[in-house]
Amino acid sequence: MNLTEIKELSQKYLMNTYGERDVCLVKGEGVYVWDSEGKKYLDFVGGIGVCDLGHCHPAIVEAVTSQVCQLIHCSNLYYIEPQVRLAQMICEHSFAEKCFFANTGAEAGEGALKLARYYAKKKFGEQKYGIITFYNSFHGRTMAMVTATGQERFQRGFEPLLPGFKYAEFNNIDSVRKQIDETTCGVMIEPVQGEGGIVPATQEFMQDLRQLCDENNLLLVFDEVQCGLGRIGTNFAYEYYNVIPDILMLAKALGGGVPIGAVLAGGEVADAFDVSKHATTFGGNPLACSSAIAFLNELFGKDLAARAAEIGSYFKQRLESLREQHSVIKEVRGIGLMLAMDFSKPVAREFYRHCLDGGLLVNVLKDDRIRLLPPLIIEKTHCDKAFEIMNSALEKIGA
Length: 399
Ligand SMILES: Cc1ncc(COP(=O)(O)O)c(C=O)c1O
Hints:
Aspartate Aminotransferase, domain 2, seven-stranded mixed β-sheet, four-stranded mixed β-sheet, 14 helices
């Protein structure tokens, strides 16, 4: 099919959630993707922070193909060997003592929320159900996660939202303190806000938040769906801050491109769920878990987090030099390979289009903001190429 045919069929048969798009991607290899018309792009979006090993990494291809020939699905009515091996691997490399596997980030959030409430109710009584989240956060699109997401634009049209949520200002500990009452059981936070604009929490705030939670018997839940798994230069974002959560959510990169989400927990929280209190048909299936094991082998075995820190700082310097040359760039922000650029004018779409023409994929977050989540395997030469394309896109905007 060519692009025009694909567009027509999408408009006719797909619900209008994603709107019109410019290209249809049909192939990927390493840091490159190709569209239906044969054009090649350097991919600095990585499936929105999913393709950390790039596309069709041999280790993922091998793990998925061999598992496909063995057993694709069987349900959690039976033990699943790759699921327990994955859980063991995660626990041996993190604070976690137990895991639950879901399929997406939003589902990991649902699991984390249910675990927090179930634990708190059992331990402290029925009145404990309140969750504090943050303005400008993003936790997914299910009803509970839309409610947890502190941005009205994701909530409008879906009211009534779920009861039991309150919102605090990010990086403002007094604001969190003010929201705590006798119902509060936990705080859910992205250590680096992703969708909200690549805004890192400060070290001081994270430490204060841990202390505040301890003083008030609140569970601290880290949503590391976007910022975890090497992206900010440590295997887990909590390690960057040296602040240990009670519950942690993973998804996106974990499956090497195959959908999987995970809820991690330590201490007595890890043992809180009773049999049949939470479940999912597909969660922890053999295929996704085998792929995730292959991903983590690469992440841990090749220390991709350290690589993300090093190449991320190189790339950020290059972006800073772009900012010095082009006054339309207001700010360059981010840690490791989780980066954003803010413009002083609403030119993000135009910038994206010029980059697309030049063979580079970037992600428009807002009219005046783009986000970059390249694979962790990028080389300096890829950063230099992206720099060149961006520079020429900015010259065109200026012109
Ligand atoms: C921090 C964070 N949490 C949760 C989600 C939801 O993940 P999913 O789209 O897999 O449901 C996202 C997705 O962008 C995210 O960035």
